[in-house]
Amino acid sequence: MRRPSISNLPHGELVKPRTTANRHRHFERYDLMTTQTRLFLTAGKTEADRIFDLLQLAFEEDGLPISAFEVDEDAEIFQVSVYSFEPDEIEPRIKEILGSNGFNFVIEREQVPDIDWVAHSLEGLSPVRAGRFFVHGSHDRDKRRINDLGIEIDAGLAFGTGHHGTTSGCLDMIGEVIRREHPRNALDLGTGSAVLAIGIAKLAPIPVLATDIDPIAVAVAQDNVVKNGVASRVQTETAIGFHHPAMRFAAPFDLIVANILARPLMQLAPQMRKHLAWGGSLILSGILETQRDKVLAAYRVQGLYHQKTLRREGWVTLHLKAKSTY
Question: For 19-78, what is each residue's pLDDT tens digit?
C-alpha cells in the first residue's frame, strides 16, 4: 500500500514517503546519522507530479533523495522535496529547472536533525496489545507473556509497527473474524511490514498472500515473516493492486485485509468483490472517520455490506461481507 499522505501517515511510525532513492516513489532511505537540508515547495497535484518528474530526471546522477507527499488530501496539495548536504549549491539548480519549465514556486528550507533514526524510533516504541496479539520490537522480547501471540516488528522502511490506530484496529478485527469464521486463506493487500499477515498466520494455520507495490516494503515484509516463524504460511510478493499471477492462483480469498488509504480502497472496490470468496470477509482501514461513509458507499454498490466499525484515534477499521449478518 499507495501514495503516502503526510496527513494520513501514523504518528510514531518510521515511514518515509514517495522518493527516488531506489528508483521507486514510496520510501525514503536515510543514513543512520545525517545532517541534511530539505529544500521543498508546495503545489497542487498536477504541478507536483510534473515537478517531481523534472527533479528526478535532473538529480538522478547526483543520487539525491527526492520525495512528494500529500499535505492536504481534500485540496490535493503536495510538497515536493529535495534532500541535500549542500543546499546552497542545489537550490539554484532547482530554481533553474523550475524557471525553464514555466514554474514559479517559492523554495523553502528545513533542517533535518542529526538523529540516529532507528535508535530514536525504537526508544519511543513501547509494545502494543491488540486482542491476543502482542506487537513488540526486538528490544522488548522479554515482555511477552505465555499466552501472547507475539509479533516482532522493528521500526524500519515499511509501514506497520502496531502503534497506529489503523494497525491495532485491524489486528483486533482480524482476531474477531478468524475466531468466528475460520477462513481457509487470506490476502493482506498493501502489507507494509507484514504485521497483519503475520498476525493472521499466527492465529490460523492457513496460507496468506502478502503484497505491496514497493519492493523495499516487500523485502522488509519477507524478513519479518521469517523472523516471526511463519514463512511456511506467508507468501510475499510485489504487486500493484490485484495484478499478479499469485492473486489468480490463490483467489478467491475467504479473508482480505487492506490497511491503505480511503481513495485507493474505493477505487479497488470492484476488484475486492471479484477476488473475495462468497461468504468471505473484508477488513479495511487507513480510513479517517470523515471518510467512512464514502468508503462504505463504494462497497455497497458492489454488494458488500457493513458489519462492524472499530474506531481508534480518529481512524476507523471496517468489516464488510457480501450479506449482512448482524
Answer: 443 333 333 333 344 478 999 999 999 999 999 999 988 887 777 888 888 888 888 899
pLDDT one-digit tens code per residue, 273-282: 999 999 999 9
DSSP 132: T
Write the burial class of residue 241 (CB in 10 Å: 0-12 exposed, 13-18 middle, 19+ buried). middle
Residues linked to residue 223 through DSSP beta bridges, in sequence order:
none
What domains lie within the chain, and their CATH numbers? Answer: 18-29+34-114 (3.30.70), 158-321 (3.40.50.150)
Maximal C-alpha separation, the chain: 64
Cβ neighbours of residue 305 closer than 8 Å, sequence gap 6 or more: 299, 320, 321, 322, 323, 324
Q: Using N-to-C axis directions, what is the helix angle for 215-227 and 195-203, rounded to 10°? A: 30
Neighbour count for residue 44 (Cβ, 10 Å) = 12
Judged by average pLDDT, the poorest of 2-11, 28-37, 58-67, 301-310 is 2-11
Using alpha carbons only, how large is the chain's radius of gyration in Å? 20
User: Which of these, 164, 161, 131, 168, lies nearest to 149 by C-alpha position?
Assistant: 131
